[in-house]
Design goal:
Blueprint lengths: L1 H11 L5 H20 L4 H18 L5 H18 L3 H22 L16 H24 L5 H19 L4 H24 L3 H27 L1
Helix pairs in contact: 2-3, 2-9, 3-4, 3-9, 4-5, 5-7, 6-7, 7-8, 8-9
C-alpha cells in the first residue's frame, strides 16, 4: 500500500518545468505572507492555498488536483456563507464538492505516459451550445439570487453559472475551460474586492482569484498549444 502511495506521489510531482515550480512557490508565498500581514484568518489562508494548488495541478493535467479541490470547495463555501455570497455557497457545497470525485474518476481513465491527462477541445457547434446555455443560466439564476436577497446577484450568478460550465469542461478535459475560468476569475476579483473594501478581511480569497486569473491565461495558452500540436 505504501509503495503505491509513494509511486503515485512521484508521478504527480514529475514533469514540472523549473519556471512552473518557481511560479508555484511564488504564488504560495504571496498568499501566506500577504494574508498574515493583512491579518486574514487560517481558514481563509488554507482555502486560498488549496484553491491555488488545485488550479496549478489541474493546469498540469495531474489527477491529484482534485484532492486540493475537495478541501478548497468545503473551506471556500464556509467563507462565502460568512459574507452572504449564497451562489458561491451552493456552487461549492452542492456542485464542486461532488464534482471533484467525478473528475477524479474520469481523469484517471485518460492519462498519458507522463501521468498527465490527454487534452481535448469543443467543435463549433459545441461552443455555440455552451455560449447559449451559459447566457440563459446567468439570467435565470441571477433573478433567483436577487429574489432570495443575495449580496451581488449579478456577479454571483455570473461566477456560479460559468463555474458550473467550466467544471464540466474541466471533467471533459476541454481547453475551453480556461477561457471560462478567466471570465469567472475577473468577476470573482470584482466581487471579493467589493467585500474587502466594504468589510475588510477575506484578503486571501481575493489573492486566490488574482492568482487564478494569471493561471487561467497561462494554461489557456499552454493547453491550446498542446491540443493544436497533438
Amino acid at each position: 500500500m505504501m509503495c503505491h502511495i509513494v509511486k503515485f506521489i512521484k508521478s504527480e510531482l514529475s514533469g514540472w518545468k523549473k519556471w512552473e515550480i518557481g511560479w508555484m512557490i511564488f504564488c504560495t508565498a504571496a498568499i501566506v505572507v500577504l494574508s498574515v500581514i493583512l491579518k486574514d484568518n487560517l481558514l481563509g489562508i488554507i482555502s486560498a492555498l488549496t484553491g491555488t494548488w488545485y488550479a496549478l495541478w489541474a493546469g498540469k493535467g495531474k489527477v491529484s488536483c482534485y484532492f486540493f479541490g475537495i478541501i478548497n470547495s468545503f473551506g471556500y463555501g464556509l467563507i462565502s456563507y460568512k459574507y452572504h455570497l449564497f451562489g458561491e455557497v451552493m456552487l461549492n457545497w452542492g456542485y464542486y464538492f461532488p464534482m471533484m470525485f467525478v473528475g477524479l474518476f474520469f481523469w484517471k481513465k485518460h492519462l498519458n505516459t507522463k501521468q498527465e491527462i490527454f487534452k481535448t477541445k469543443l467543435n463549433f457547434k459545441g461552443r455555440c451550445i455552451l455560449l447559449a446555455a451559459s447566457v440563459a443560466g446567468v439570467i435565470i439564476y441571477g433573478t433567483l439570487l436577487k429574489f432570495i436577497g443575495g449580496r451581488t446577484p449579478g456577479l454571483d450568478s455570473l461566477t456560479t453559472v460559468l463555474s458550473v460550465a467550466a467544471m464540466i469542461m474541466t471533467v471533459r478535459r476541454c481547453v475551453e475551460q480556461w477561457f471560462l475560468w478567466t471570465v469567472v476569475n475577473v468577476a470573482s476579483i470584482v466581487m471579493w474586492l467589493r467585500v474587502y473594501m466594504q468589510e475588510g478581511g477575506a484578503i486571501a480569497s481575493l489573492l486566490m482569484w488574482c492568482i487564478a486569473l494569471a493561471n487561467g491565461i497561462i494554461f489557456y495558452y499552454q493547453w491550446s498549444k498542446e491540443v493544436k500540436n497533438g
